[in-house]
Design goal:
heterodimer; A: alpha/beta; six-stranded mixed beta sheet; three-stranded antiparallel beta sheet; 24% strand; globular; disordered C terminus; B: mainly alpha; ABC transporter involved in vitamin B12 uptake, BtuC
């Protein structure tokens, strides 16, 4: 891509989606940091509209995987294809960051944050037009946040912030949304709020890839699960992935499995005390 | 009242005072605008370092071309760009960025002082570069400051959305395929231009206050970026003018006087904002929910 072309703002990546291709396909992805492989030989495909949870211990490479898919990080080896093209030819991939990674004191209100998703659609040297405001309003309506558009982002509850960031992804007109630990620190009611939004997204055929530490939510609320620990250890329905063999392979020392008459019981996913991803349970 | 009026108009009978006031006013406004991004992005140390690091460029221009502003301007800008690139290159390897900033800043600063020390009138000139000499602003300098200042503010307004996204959420900027590297360099260039055009008003050693403090004070009162920028510019401009009057009547150096007024503004904001800030937020939220 020519720099001049990019700077002039005439170039907004808009490769035609090749709908015969899967929305996302990773083939043999390796990522190496300081000599060690953080991701090894990751290959999988997503179908349009499916909701997939990514689970795995701390330091399993979930955030790295998301960065590769978003086109923010180049893999050391392997290919990512979004509808048959590399991710950096698309702006239809949205990354909803962990709330802990966002500066919540930043002087922006809810509408400002959602409008950020439209920056490319608006184009350089232009201001938002009526159509952009309509998209922002629709996105906020879908996540039931229209009554708080003027609030500074830090004045919202965790669940409300999460909904605003999902609205921003919608304003971006994303076909694939990556959500990094969206449930962390949310109470049950807020989590339900997020899931009811996910159901609305399903009707719009938006594909979701969601990382979480909550194995119950992953098992109950998603179409498929990916068990990740630097490699894809299991990928499929909960019944096929949540086997003692696969779980202990993924979590190694970080989890204890107990066989009870009722089935296998999972004892404390001891996340959060170490590792570089910095997740925190509330 | 006539006494007050006279207090205000008395200094204006001197052309150097009116030029100085105009220069300080422009610099106060212009510094605060990129300063807002410096504060929001946690670049305060970098801004301070960059201000010190332009000294060798200014010194070389000074030794070659005398005190012609356009030479000093070009020299300072060149040194600023070299420093930014140098810090970028050093911190790519195993050296942390703040270490790279520390190394480059003191190295360049020392080079600047060494160069200036070869001139006989060393101390006077060095003082001007370090702490400013706003009363020495010539009419042509004023044009230079005005034009480049307007250019800085205009660029930041034109790229408002992009700089906002880049500062709030760099990963979003990348997934939107914005030219992130180019925008980052553009912001650094704007900061370097701002520093160079403010050189005569406050000098390199006090520059950080012009860039950071008004925005820091404004951040305590604002919930939206344009408000914060406008407020910071207002604080910068007011401080510059008040500081210069104080300097005239109390016979203290102009640069430090301006910076002391800015600092006083910040202290007041810090003391009185939390309650007021919250009250304002609460009222705004009330209004918002009433409208809905």
């Amino acid at each position: 891509m020519e720099l001049a072309e990019k700077v002039s703002g005439l170039h907004v990546p808009k490769k035609e989606h090749d709908l015969s291709q899967p929305i996302l396909r990773l083939a043999g992805i390796f990522v190496r940091f300081n000599g060690t492989y953080v991701l090894q030989d990751i290959s999988f495909e997503l179908k349009i509209g499916e909701h997939v949870a990514v689970i795995g211990p701390n330091g399993a490479g979930k955030s790295t995987l998301f960065n590769v898919i978003a086109g923010v990080l180049s893999p050391s080896r392997g290919n990512v294809h979004v509808y048959g093209h590399t991710p950096d030819e698309h702006i239809c991939i949205a990354y909803v960051p962990q709330r802990s990674e966002v500066d919540l004191t930043f002087p922006v209100n809810v509408a400002d944050v959602v409008m950020m998703g439209r920056v490319c659609k608006i184009g350089f040297l232009r201001r938002p037009r009526r159509g952009d405001w309509a998209v922002v309003h629709d996105a906020l309506a879908l996540v039931a946040m229209t009554h708080l558009t003027g609030r500074q982002i830090g004045e919202l509850s965790g669940g409300q912030q999460q909904r605003v960031f999902i609205a921003r992804a919608l304003a971006q007109e994303a076909a694939l949304i990556l959500l990094d630990e969206p449930f962390t620190g949310l109470d049950a009611q807020s989590q339900e709020g997020i899931f009811s939004i996910f159901e609305k997204l399903r009707q719009r055929d938006v594909t979701l890839l969601v990382s979480t530490h909550d194995l119950n939510l992953a098992a109950e609320r998603f179409d498929r699960l990916m068990l990740l620990n630097r490699q894809v250890i299991g990928f499929g329905r909960a019944a096929d992935v949540f086997t003692p063999a696969l779980l202990s392979q993924a979590y190694r020392g970080q989890m204890r499995l107990i066989d009870t008459p009722a089935g296998t019981m999972v004892l404390n996913d001891t996340c959060c005390d170490h590792g570089h991803e910095g997740h925190h349970h509330a | 009242m006539p006494e007050v009026w006279q207090l205000l108009t008395d200094p204006l009978q001197y052309a150097f005072m009116t030029r100085g006031l105009a220069a300080a006013l422009i610099v106060g406004i212009v510094c605060a605008v990129p300063g807002t991004y410096i504060v929001l992005r946690g670049m305060a140390l970098f801004g301070n370092a960059l201000a010190h690091a332009i000294l060798p460029g200014v010194a070389v221009a000074y030794l070659m071309g005398g005190s012609s502003q356009s030479w000093l301007f070009a020299g300072g800008l060149t040194a600023g760009i070299i420093t930014s690139l140098g810090i970028g290159m050093l911190s790519k390897g195993s050296i942390k960025q703040d270490t790279a900033v520390g190394v480059m800043f003191t190295g360049m600063f020392a080079l600047g002082i060494a160069l200036i020390s070869t001139v006989r009138s060393y101390t006077v000139d060095l003082t001007h570069f370090l702490f400013g000499n706003v009363l020495g602003v010539a009419a042509s300098d004023l044009w230079l400051i005005g034009i480049f200042g307007a250019l800085v503010v205009l660029t930041i307004i034109l790229f408002y959305k992009e700089f906002l996204v880049l500062s709030f959420d760099p990963i979003l900027a990348q997934t939107l395929r914005l030219p992130v590297t180019a925008l980052n360099y553009l912001l650094l260039l704007l900061i370097a231009v701002t520093i160079v055009l403010s050189l005569q008003t406050v000098g390199v050693a006090l520059m950080s206050a012009m860039l950071v403090t008004p925005a820091a004070a404004a951040s305590l009162f604002s919930r939206r970026l344009p408000v914060m920028m406008a407020l910071a510019a207002g604080i910068g401009a007011t401080s510059a003018v008040v500081g210069l009057y104080l300097s005239y009547y109390m016979n203290v150096a102009s640069g430090p006087a301006i910076v002391l007024v800015i600092t006083a503004f910040f202290m007041l904001a810090f003391l009185f904002s939390p309650s007021q800030g919250r009250l304002k937020a609460w009222l705004a939220a009330k209004r918002e929910s009433a409208r809905a």
